[in-house]
Amino acid sequence: MARPQRHRLLHGYPLAAAMPFADADVRRMAATFDSQFEPPRNPRNPLLVGVLPHPFCNPRISGCGFCTFPHETYSALKAAATSSAVSLEIEQRIANQPDLDRAQVSGLYFGGGTANLTPANTFRLLARRLNSSFDLQQAEVSLEGVARNFVRGNPSLLDIMTEEIQARHFRISMGIQTFSESRLEQMGRLAFGRADTFAEAVEAAHVRNMTASGDLLCNLPGQSLEEMKKDIRQAIDIGLDQICVYHLVMFPGLGTEWARDPAMVKLLPANEEASSNWNELRTMLLESGFRQTSLTNFERAELAFDPRRYRYEPISYESNHCQVVGFGPSGISFTPTDNGQYALKTMNPESSSEYMQAVHSQGPVWNRYFRYDRLDFELLLITRRLASLRFDNDAHRMIAESEASQSYAERLELLVAENLLERNSVESWLTPKGMFYSDSIAGLLAEARWEHGSKHSRPFMSNDNRSGHM
Ligand SMILES: C[S@@+](CC[C@H](N)C(=O)[O-])C[C@H]1O[C@@H](n2cnc3c(N)ncnc32)[C@H](O)[C@@H]1O
Ligand code: SF4
Fold first, then answer.
1. Cα-to-centroid distance, 176 and ligand 1 (Å)
2. pLDDT, position 36
């Protein structure tokens, strides 16, 4: 808890950047789509589709100073070429895995950076391809990006999305970070929009009957609690349906621009102060009519029983059998077996050029993979569940029946003693302090699995990987 806190619990086990690269034998086995290797899909399990059309963005400061997600310098030509390759990847994958053809999808997410910076024509073709490949009628569809691109563009990507995709509900997810113009300038993000652009983007979503989510950062270098509260107040006032608050992940060695600057690092609050700030912002949101739905997400309480509430993340946290299919650079796929004994996670190459090469080659596009055995799979489910803030009765039963139950029990005791977790006879839930220190909790639980003789080397929940997650 003395070390920098990240958002590892949100990302699940193992972290993307800690996944091993596949060797030639593994790739050969996977190329045959052998069911011994990739578990067959059960059509009853919820299916999520993540699409990363390209990794490009264009802030004036490299990586906006703080960003830990994969990003490359924008070029319209390269973005168009990459998104066309994504359409091809979808076509190839469906041809090789016919059980995905027209499969019913619960959530579709265009994300992975600045998805709304995709050139309009290629975005239309990509949307059309997805609509003809999957059954999206019951799906929630999200488009991620920066404010300016939600309010500009003729035609608007928002209209293209609704013209091309028959889905139940659409939403936007916008990176705001802060309303302070001097801080936006420090991030090189002024051209992405200011307070009025953020409000216009919410309006652009609402007039189309879409919901709107916005990301805010807190605990920025030298940022006072008053400044943070002002950001939250403005985010509420522009009518966002959902507000995500991320404690800034930054420490020497992280590899971001700001993390390389000792003067900036010096201005970061210590963990205790950062935790107390987070707690104040959380309370402010709860008192302003928001409901906390995960470690970082707050949603307007009136949406709690509305079919338009945000579903993608809760489905991935709560279902033991949720399948994820990811397309594009860094795309992640996850297939569990029904009996919970085994699962496979794969990840596509991160860089656009490697990704395009892989799509145009024979064999699987992914180059990293992780095969979960039963204990790994349990750890994944435990960490995912905790990201939704609580262990219900089912999660407790799974822990009690685990081969590693003694190790988990000792650690849960410790979390209660440290006031990170509270419990009654049927449930446990994270305290606000536990929410801030969720990263330490993730590390501690991963240690329990490691104690039980993992066949994998230790760094699967490591803190030293530089990109791919916060
Ligand atoms: C894929 S990113 C960015 C979306 C979009 N490209 C943008 O710039 O607005 C999603 C979110 O992760 C958060 N994020 C990125 N780097 C972070 C860091 N180092 N610490 C905490 N949150 C971070 C930001 O709030 C960001 O909006
Ligand atoms: S925060 Fe968004 S715009 Fe900035 S570098 Fe990351 S992905 Fe690109």
1. 9
2. 61
Which CATH code fits 22-315? 3.30.750.200
User: Taking CB atoms and a 6 Å cutoff, what residues make up the pocket around ligand 1?
Assistant: 57, 66-69, 113-114, 144-146, 175, 177, 215, 217, 246, 248-250, 470
The whole model's pTM is what? 0.94
**C-alpha–C-alpha distance, residues 441 and 434, integer Å:** 8
Residue to substitute in 69, 73, 258 for testing ligand 2 pocket (most ligand atoms within 8 angstroms of CB): 69
Q: Whose CA is nearest to atom 2 of ligand 2?
A: 113
Residue 464: the pLDDT is 45
The strand pairing partners of 175, in sequence order, are 146, 215
277 C-alpha to center of ligand 1: Å? 19
Question: Which one of the ligands is nearest to 116 CA?
Answer: 1
49: left (phi over 0), alpha (psi -120 to 50) or beta: beta
Q: What is the token pair recorded at 154?
A: 């003729």
One DSSP character per residue, 398-452 reads HHHHSTTHHHHHHHHHHHHHTTSEEE-SS-EEE-HHHHHTHHHHHHHHHHHHHHT
The predicted pLDDT at position 320 comes to: 78
Distance 397 CA to ligand 2 centre (A): 40
The 10s digit of each residue's pLDDT in 208-245 is 999 999 999 999 999 999 999 999 999 999 999 999 99
158 residue type, one letter: L
The 8 Å CB, 24+ separation contacts for 447-450 are: 447/411, 448/379, 448/404, 448/407, 448/408, 448/410, 448/411, 449/13, 449/375, 449/376, 449/378, 449/379, 449/404, 449/407
CA distance 241 to 371: 37
Regions of the chain where pLDDT drops below 70: 31-39, 340-341, 453-470
Q: What pLDDT digit, counting tens, does each position of 174-205 carry?
A: 999 999 999 999 999 999 999 999 999 999 99
CATH 3.30.750.200 domain residues, the chain: 22-315
Confidence at residue 463, expressed as pLDDT on a 0 to 100 scale: 45
User: Closest Cα to atom 14, ligand 1: which residue?
Assistant: 67
